[in-house]
Amino acid sequence: MPNSTAYEEIFYSAHSITIENLSLTVSLDNGSIEDRVADTQSHSHPVFEIQGSLSGSFLVKEADGACATVERDTLVLIPPEVYHGIRASTPAKRFTLRFSMLRASEEGEDLYGCFRSVQTLTVLENAPELISLMLRIREECLHPGAASLSLCKTYLSEFFLLLYRRLSASKLTAHAKAHTLSESDDANARYNKIEIFINSHIGEPLCEEQLAESLGLSVRQTSRVMTSIFGMSFKKKLLQMRLHHAKSLLATTQDPVERIAAAVGYTSPSGFHIAFRQAFGVTPTEYRAKNENT
């Protein structure tokens, strides 16, 4: 069940549930420390993420400018591999839920297909019934009692069915991209550790051996984990995260390009320019000119 600290009201809880033709692995937490929403750098996850406001408001912003305001009774669904960041707006409490999924069968309502059709940030406004379920789950996690595990699974099942109903009503028609989702709580925990580790050392020389040591794995095991969770090597993931962090700095600061290059780990400004243009088709200066007001 959850690990919780009464003073800071921090919890993490993980569950496996099956609904109709969908098998879900869910991890959830309250998304804050002492109920403060903290800003985050642009990042992505190999699984779905749901952010909900329990009070106050905050912003979820895609790396390329799309922005969603998450207010009381509002949820935002973030698909896998969509780069996004959190920006505090007002004093707020939030709830974070992440899930991976597998098709359990071909029978029943196609929840699997519905969720896989989501391609961009999807905001669900006026969703008090979903927020109410989040609050019930939060209470069971913070103050577990008799049958808390069963209650959480019941609330989560109801939550996903209501979410499915809302998504179906919105008539999403986008085609799902081919993507292999994480299939275990262990993978969920590891992708968090990997992204946190890389983000915390993004401006430093970094090698796979250092990541392996932080994960308590061999280099060979770490390489397999990177391929399994992210579908790419450590080197490619590090490059991806550095360049997306650079995009965020270019759009939100007036720092010189050379300083931004150094901040994301490049010792050579020319090497940074080449890598940025290869990745995004424009130079850092051109990107800033197009996005400095977003």
Overview of this structure, please?
The protein is of the alpha+beta class. The protein folds into two domains: about 5-170, Jelly Rolls; about 185-290, Arc Repressor Mutant, subunit A (Orthogonal Bundle). The chain contains ten helices and ten strands. Strands 1-2-3-9-4-7-10 form a seven-stranded antiparallel β-sheet. A three-stranded antiparallel β-sheet has the order 6-5-8, with no helix packed on it. A hairpin with a 2-residue loop joins strand 2 and strand 3. It is globular, with a radius of gyration of 20 Å.
Instruction: Give the domain tally.
Output: 2
How would you classify the helix and strand content by structural class?
alpha+beta
Number of strands: 10
Average of pLDDT:
80
CATH-level-2 architecture of the largest domain:
Sandwich
Dominant shape: globular
- The first-level CATH class of the largest domain is given as Mainly Beta
- Side by side, the strands of the main sheet go 1-2-3-9-4-7-10
- Poorly predicted spans: 1-8, 172-185
Q: What is the CA-based Rg, rounded?
A: 20 Å
Name the descriptors.
294 residues, alpha+beta, Jelly Rolls, Arc Repressor Mutant, subunit A, seven-stranded antiparallel beta sheet, three-stranded antiparallel beta sheet, globular, disordered N terminus
Could you write a compact summary of the structure shown?
The protein is built from 10 helices and 10 strands. The protein is α+β, with helices and mostly antiparallel strands.
Sequence-ordered SSE layout with sheet pairings:
Layout lengths: L2 E3 L4 E10 L2 E8 L18 E8 L2 E5 L4 E4 L4 E4 L5 E5 L4 E11 L7 H6 L5 E3 L3 H15 L5 H22 L15 H16 L7 H8 L3 H12 L3 H19 L4 H7 L5 H12 L3 H8 L3
Antiparallel strand pairs: 1-2, 2-3, 3-9, 4-7, 4-9, 5-6, 5-8, 7-10
Helix pairs in contact: 2-3, 5-6, 7-10
